[in-house]
Amino acid sequence: MTDRTADRPPARRPGGRNARVRARILAATAELVARDGIAGFRYEEVAESAGVHKTSVYRNWPDREDLVVEAMLRYAEDLASVADTGDIHRDLVDFLVALAGGLETPFGRTLEQALLPAGQSAVVRQALSRILDRRVAAMRERVAAAVERGELPPVDSAFLGEMISGPVHLVVNRGTRRFTRADAERVVGVVLAGIRATAPHG
Amino acid sequence: MTDRTADRPPARRPGGRNARVRARILAATAELVARDGIAGFRYEEVAESAGVHKTSVYRNWPDREDLVVEAMLRYAEDLASVADTGDIHRDLVDFLVALAGGLETPFGRTLEQALLPAGQSAVVRQALSRILDRRVAAMRERVAAAVERGELPPVDSAFLGEMISGPVHLVVNRGTRRFTRADAERVVGVVLAGIRATAPHG
Q: Which residues, as ranges, make up the DNA-binding region of this protein (chains A, B) (predicted)?
């Protein structure tokens, strides 16, 4: 199977060029927000770092908060999915490893900090809550599939999500050691065993 | 049994008056750090709020960081102990409820924020790490007693501590709901059951 889109001229992919520009701007925003904080980054630097003209940034995001929120949501996209290989233990371990990797990035740290109630704007807090909602929804879907197949007893997926991701946040935020795949294996192992052992019989 | 110290004159309790002054200063510092952040609080306000002369603050803590650190450690004292009633489940639930209560205070939130690597001073980070060390030590001692009595299989107490307190930090930091005693019961129940179920036989 050949890549049928690779050599198409830009004219046949409406929005293609602008989509790439937008992606570069969002990536640059994420980097600068990580470095300078949500209040500190500047449009001039975003444009320079993305290799676009400043007017491209202003035209696409006249509102500064919209730009931050979209950069945050894009970043979170990667962290809000849970794969379904049919093995709930393995999929949750992969999820935790990805979560730890994301939280360890400068942007992840900035997001964690923004979560603390230190006067972030309502818009940013809303974006964070949308990120969490997506993650909760992805977890709900994956856990429902596992329950359906008899891999797990019926369980509150939000609770399961908090149980496994709480230790990841704690270890990464403390910053005294890395959260490894072995940690993820151990956390998921204990939580799934505990959920199975405490499930009501019947 | 009567209180034999209550009516002794100050002269017979060396340091008594100064100890009270120090306690008031530390309490005032904790409050102001919670309100204004570690970098923002002022000695004048500490003195005023503690009802002491400014020179009392300077005399006891010529170094500003020492004052913050001592206020932090004093606060953490309450959160660094795990009772031993002989029932490990109950004692861990009580620990989590106290932890959640502490993290929900303005000072607790300030501490959580200081934990994030956003350029806190080395001294403050050291104090935080001493707080964590104390908590880890308290947990180790309590878990060792439970293992000794056959309440738990041999287990890494630091891991157990992260497993139960991770969800507390996560829920409190998100700030979308309270962490209740029912939450604590559920968390401890699943973690202890999971640790028992995954323990190597023998």
A: 42-61
CATH class (in words) of the domain with range B78-198? mainly alpha
- Domains in chain B: boundaries: 12-62, 78-198
CATH superfamily, with its number, for domain B12-62: Homeodomain-like (1.10.10.60)
Spatial separation of the C-alpha atoms in residues A143 and A198, rounded to whole Å: 17
CA distance B30 to B45: 12
Q: How far is A63 from chain B (nearest CA, A)?
A: 26
CATH code of A11-62, in short, is: 1.10.10.60
The answer to whether the CB atoms of A173 and B129 lie below 8 A apart is no
CA dist A117 to A99, A110, B173, B198, Å?
Answer: 22, 13, 8, 38
**C-alpha closest to that of A103 among B201, B132, B116:** B116
Which candidate in A33, A139, A174, A185 is best for mutational testing of the B interface (most B CBs within 10 A)?
A174
Q: What ipTM, to 2 d.p.?
A: 0.78
Average pLDDT per consecutive 10 residues, chain B (202 residues; last block may be shorter): 43 67 90 80 93 94 89 76 94 94 80 61 75 88 96 96 95 87 98 95 60
Which chain A residue lies closest to B111 (C-alpha atoms)? A116
- Rounded Cα distance, A163 and A198, in Å: 14
